[in-house]
UniProtKB/TrEMBL annotation:
PANTHER family: PENTATRICOPEPTIDE REPEAT-CONTAINING PROTEIN 3, MITOCHONDRIAL. Transmembrane segments: none annotated. Keywords: Repeat. This is Pentatricopeptide repeat-containing protein At3g61360. SUPFAM superfamilies: HCP-like (SSF81901). PPR repeats lie at residues 212-246, 247-281, 317-351. The keyword Repeat applies. The gene is LOC105179562. InterPro entries: PPR_rpt, TPR-like_helical_dom_sf. Pfam families: PPR (PF01535), PPR_2 (PF13041).
């Protein structure tokens, strides 16, 4: 009896120790997250380009804190926050100068992504050269893909091919380019839906870089993303004629193409053919079908597919729940959708941006401003930061429904989180504030944007110019004018086929 009591005591002690350890780990994790947010705020809030960022980084960020995962998380936050690319680059260079810091491919790729997103291509090439010299092992197919995809988006076909050649002959000169690198080049055009260019590259270079099934799937995916089901099927048959055997990815792409066009019956027939060909469907395939059932307003089938996931020895993830949530919203069943969000929480399946975006859309259509504002408050309480399209959608909705205060609240929340919202969000908010005579707050928002190294649109500047002149606030107008002038010297030139927002002042 005493032996059993002793064992029971030891067992309870182990449980208590384990619980205490988890509490300590959670506390440390929260402290680290707070520190990451602090660094992101320091970088984003720093007046740019009036003062150099490097001295602030040296004085405010201890080098001992620069662990590999810590730097990756800061750069991830800077990317999500739409930070100015030059600021992120300064931070990464500061880290590279620390001899104790061990840089990772992930940190390098995030910095490269931030630079290329803002079209700082000279700095991006400079970064690649720096990494080639000091840390060549960090150069990966992913970094190549980031660079080529952005060049394909913002520059010409010839410039993209020239960039690929530069990588082959210079940046990645120690590596032999083969099919994998060729696939990266094709993907760059396909992700931008430039299928004419992708076809031209394939026809020109496939003899030099023998294609594989992945090559064909990349092209097939490109045709799918362009929204042309006929082109998908034509290329699929070409793939078969060339002797390539379709795999589960091939079937999933074709299924998705039919689902997006509302041809759910065709998608189901393909799904049956997929199983007959012994291509095991992945969770992503099932998720695609659930979404397709929602597009076809077949909520019964959507629920059945979702309930069958465990029977296939798979576990539903956030994406699968989001697909069912979308199906419920399309069928205008907001009550069931709300219950599904609660179920996700109970099962520790996180709500992501798609979850919130989908739910906000449903609430806008069914419950209006009351339902949206309730979910918005819950989202902020959970400290969740939505992505750009959701931010723009919410600010637009708030302003259109006479709740510009909530739009401003969202803006201030993002500022406190160290984020720099997209310029379109600023356009909507400034328009809403000026329409209600809240010019001072509109001016502050513009100033915050410019201080963070992001420009304002011509529309916003002209709007503020008009109202500030009417109010006799010429000094504030001049302050904005000077900030834009300084920033204009550092920002890349506008894309040729867009309106020139870096206007003459």
């Amino acid at each position: 009896m005493m032996l059993l009591t002793s064992r029971s005591y030891k067992f309870n002690q182990l449980i208590r120790i384990n619980k205490n350890l988890k509490i300590v780990q959670l506390h440390l994790s929260m402290e680290k997250d707070t520190e990451i947010e602090r660094i992101v705020r320091i970088i984003n809030d720093h007046p740019f380009p009036d003062k150099p960022l490097s001295p602030i980084l040296h004085s405010r960020i201890p080098q001992a804190a620069l662990s590999t995962p810590f730097v990756e998380k800061v750069l991830g936050k800077l990317f999500a926050a739409h930070s100015n690319g030059l600021k992120a680059y300064e931070f990464f260079k500061y880290c590279l100068h620390n001899q104790q810091y061990n840089p990772s491919s992930d940190a390098f790729e995030k910095t490269l992504h931030i630079l290329t997103r803002m079209r700082y291509f000279d700095k991006a090439w400079e970064l690649m050269e720096r990494i080639k010299q000091a840390h060549p092992s960090l150069l990966t197919l992913k970094s190549m893909s980031i660079m080529l995809s952005r060049i394909a988006k913002f520059q010409s076909y010839e410039e993209t091919l020239a960039a690929f050649e530069k990588m082959q002959m210079d940046i990645f000169s120690g590596n032999k380019f083969w099919t994998n690198e060729f696939n990266v080049l094709l993907r760059a055009f396909c992700t931008q839906r430039q299928m004419k260019e992708a076809r031209a590259v394939f026809n020109k270079m496939h003899s030099q870089f023998p294609p594989n099934t992945k090559t064909m799937n990349i092209l097939l995916l490109g045709f799918k993303e362009s929204g042309d089901v006929t082109a998908v099927e034509l290329f699929y048959h070409e793939m078969i004629r060339r002797g390539f055997k379709p795999n589960s990815v091939t079937y999933s792409i074709r299924i998705d193409a039919y689902c997006k066009k509302g041809h759910f019956g065709d998608a189901l027939r393909l799904f049956e053919a997929m199983e007959s060909a012994n291509c095991a469907p992945s969770l992503e395939t099932i998720t695609t079908l659930i979404h397709g059932a929602g597009v076809a307003r077949n909520i019964t089938k959507a629920k059945q597919l979702f309930e069958d996931i465990p029977k296939r020895s798979l576990q539903p993830d956030t994406a699968a729940y989001n697909a069912l949530l979308s199906s419920l919203i399309r069928s205008k069943d907001v009550i069931s959708a709300t219950a599904l969000m609660d179920e996700m929480e109970k099962r520790n399946i996180e709500h992501d941006n798609v979850t919130y975006h989908t739910m906000f859309l449903g609430l806008m259509r069914s419950e209006g401003i009351g339902g949206v504002s309730t979910l918005y408050v819950k989202m902020v309480e959970k400290k969740f930061v939505p992505k750009t399209r959701t931010i723009v959608m919410l600010i637009k909705f708030f302003c259109e429904n006479c709740r510009v205060d909530l739009g401003l609240d969202l803006w201030n929340y993002l500022m406190k989180k160290g984020h720099c919202p997209h310029s379109h969000a600023l356009d909507l908010l400034v328009t809403g504030l000026c329409a209600r005579g809240r010019v001072e707050e509109a001016f502050v928002c513009c100033k915050q944007m410019l201080e963070r190294g992001r420009t304002v649109s011509l529309i916003v500047f002209k709007m503020l110019e008009r109202v500030l002149v009417q109010m006799g606030e010429v000094d504030k107008l001049e302050e904005l004018r000077c900030m834009i002038k300084k920033l204009k010297l550092l920002l890349p030139p506008p894309k040729q086929d867009t309106i020139n927002l870096s206007f003459t002042l």
